[in-house]
Design brief:
Number of strands: 8
Order of helices and strands: EHEHEHEHEHEEHEHHHHH
CATH topology of the largest domain: Rossmann fold
Strand content: 5-15%
Radius of gyration: 21 Å
Number of helices: 11
Distance between the termini: 38 Å
CATH architecture of the largest domain: 3-Layer(aba) Sandwich
Structural class: alpha/beta
Number of domains: 2
CATH class of the largest domain: Alpha Beta
Shape: elongated
């Protein structure tokens, strides 16, 4: 791969640059990241990644361009860089809620587009990335899928599922972290130090995820293995359900999804 440019060096853009550089799928000196406040990209610069505040220059020689900016900024940036794009360049949008048709309409021409929704765990090679493709050959789809599989798991999905993917995979990492935080707080209440409670809670969640990933079992099957009659686990689970644990999580996912959908109208 010759070069990639990431427009937007915020949390997600930064994480993608670090993840790709660490995975060795592309040399750091073939990655360019842009941001208006360029002084905040010092860590990337130390890794050998090019940093700049000039979007137009950054896209001119890029083979693949990743758009990692906030939705309110994307239209202006697309209009800014459009005259400087090679029409054979692959564009990967990480922008929530902006459809393929909207991107093409703003650019003013038909092009090879992808929408991708990774999460910030991409920086450590553990992202869950959902991808949809538009006017892309199978070879191009395989290329983008392979890139993201180097920094976690990746799946091709229909574009109409991208909002749901954003909630479950991208927002979902925050929901999972909130569960870990609550577990830490509970651990402190029952006697652990904060540091030890965090270690135990985080590793327990990691182990639970690996059980599901490696076995392919439904979570309830693994739950059954640790819920004995009259036992302490089932007592705790039942109390959580009485307090609305599952329904609160489902409602949170649904609320985030509705906000994305409402923003389109």
């Amino acid at each position: 791969m010759k070069s990639i440019t990431i427009i937007g060096g915020g949390n997600l853009g930064n994480a993608i640059a670090v993840g790709f550089a660490k995975s060795n799928i592309i040399s750091p000196n073939n990655i360019t990241v842009t941001r208006r406040r360029i002084h905040l990209l010092g860590t990337l610069k130390e890794m050998g990644i090019h940093v700049t505040d000039n979007n137009c220059q950054a896209v001119e020689s890029a083979q693949i361009i990743f758009l990692a900016v906030k939705p309110k900024h994307i239209e202006g940036i697309l209009k800014e860089i459009a005259p400087h794009l090679d029409r054979n360049t692959i564009i990967v949008s990480l922008v929530t809620g902006m459809s393929f048709s909207q991107i093409e309409s703003t650019l003013g021409y038909n092009c090879t587009l992808f929408r991708a929704m990774p999460n910030t765990a991409i920086a450590i090679g553990e992202s869950m990335t959902c991808i949809s493709a538009h006017r892309a050959s199978q070879e191009q789809q395989d290329q983008i899928l392979t890139m993201f599989k180097q920094v976690g798991q990746a799946e091709i999905i229909p574009e109409e599922m991208m909002s749901a993917a954003t909630v479950l995979g991208s927002c979902g990492i925050a929901f999972a972290l909130r569960f870990i935080r609550a577990s830490i707080q509970g651990g402190i209440e029952i006697g652990f130090s904060a540091n030890l409670a965090q270690t135990i809670a985080a590793q327990t969640v990691k182990g639970a995820a690996e059980l599901i990933i490696k076995s392919g079992n439904h979570p309830e099957r693994e739950i059954d293995k640790v819920t004995t009659p009259l036992g302490i686990t089932i007592s705790g689970l039942n109390e959580m359900e009485h307090q609305g644990f599952s329904s609160a999580l489902i409602k949170g996912l649904s609320t985030s999804f509705k906000k994305i959908e409402n923003s389109k109208s």
